[in-house]
Structure formats: structure tokens, C-alpha cells
Amino acid sequence: FSTDNELAVTASYDLTARIWRAATGWCLRTLKGHKGTVYSAAFSKDGASVLTSSDDDTARVWNVRTGRCTQTLRGHRDEISSAVFSHDGAYALTASRDHTAMIWDATTGTCVHKLQGHSKRVCSASFSTDGASVITASRDRMVKVWDARTGTCILTLEGHTEMVTSAVFSANGAWILTASDDKTARIWDAKSGICSKTLRGHVDRIYSAVFSAEGASVLTASEDRTARIWCSSSGECICTLDAHRD
To answer: For residues 116 and 240, what is the distance between their CA atoms, to the nearest angstrom?
Structure first.
């Protein structure tokens, strides 16, 4: 959704992304230009731009009002699995199968930093709320924290025994939450890199994990057909959401 909840954006295997009026379901814009599957699409905070990622090895910035591509981000050597804006919209962050993540100037399309250090595909990448740090999760079982201003790796989180599918900061930047194919999610101290809590209970891989807005709870989604809500401070499962059948 856009920040004002007026618009929604979707990404598709049909090589396009679409912008929709949320209240009516009307398609306002079809974003055409990618030559491969569009894996992700996200609004900038001000709602003026959309950022898409694709298996054509590029990400694109689009003008929401006109539907035109304003920048094509070229530099990755393999598919880009995700792309997000920084909270101020000044930068774009991409994660790729080529083992790297990249920070881009969203206005000029210039690569500012190439984050190199993972030995396998980078599954996800995200900014901290203040934009000072970036976190990446990889198939190499590692999570890395980077200084967004210098592109330097400042912390490596080790502990998961299978691919790490996602990693995010809490809103206040004090904690990191990771999800993995090893059927666990973990909460880490963002400064020390020490694992504070291991969330156990799922019986299959965990695709994603997010903090609640205030950080008191965690929500995980798994291939075991359930989602779970956890207490961040105790690591205990509060409830299991198990109505899905696939």
C-alpha cells in the first residue's frame, strides 16, 4: 500500500506491475518495461514513486502519476529478488542472486555501494528506519549488517543452520529479526550481534518474520501452513493462526 492507503501495487509473472485504487479495485497504471518476472513492487514513503525488481537483472523506478519508468538500475549480474526504498526515498536497495546487495541513488540511478561478502544469493535486504544501516539475509546462512554510508560490513550474525529467508530491524533499530529454512526465527541484539531469543514451534521453513509497530510482538509465516504470533521479550508463542490449507 501507499502510505495514505489510497493505492496498492502488485508484481506479477506477466512481466508487469500494476497500481490500483484500493477503495474501488480499479487499475490506474500498468508498469511495462521489465523483460522478466517482476518479483517485488513497493511505494516510496511519499507515494510518488514505485520501485520494482525482476529476474531480468534490473530494478526500475516508476513515476506513479504517469506510469513511466524514470530510472533503470543496472549492475547486478543475476535476478533481483527484492528492492525497497529507504524511508526518506532518497535511496533504493536491491538484493540479488549474484551474492550481492546494492545501494542506489534513487534519483540518478547511480550505484552508491555494492555490498559484497555473502557467498550465496542474497534473499532479502532492508534499511533501518533511520537509513544508517542495511541488513541482508542470504542462502549462505549468514545475516550481515552494513553501514549504509560507507558500504562496510559492521556485523555478521551466525547461528541459523539453513538458508536465511528474511531479516528486518525493529522500528527503533535496537533489534534484528530473522527467519530461516531451519524452521526457526531469531531475535538478535543489533549492536552486539548476540542472539537473544530463538522462536521454535514451526515444523517447516519460515518464509518471513516481522515485528509489530511497537516491537512487542513478532509474526512469522511458514510452509507448515501456519502463522504464529510471538512475544518478543519472552520468545513464547502467543497464538497459532492455522486456518490455511495450503
So the answer is: 38
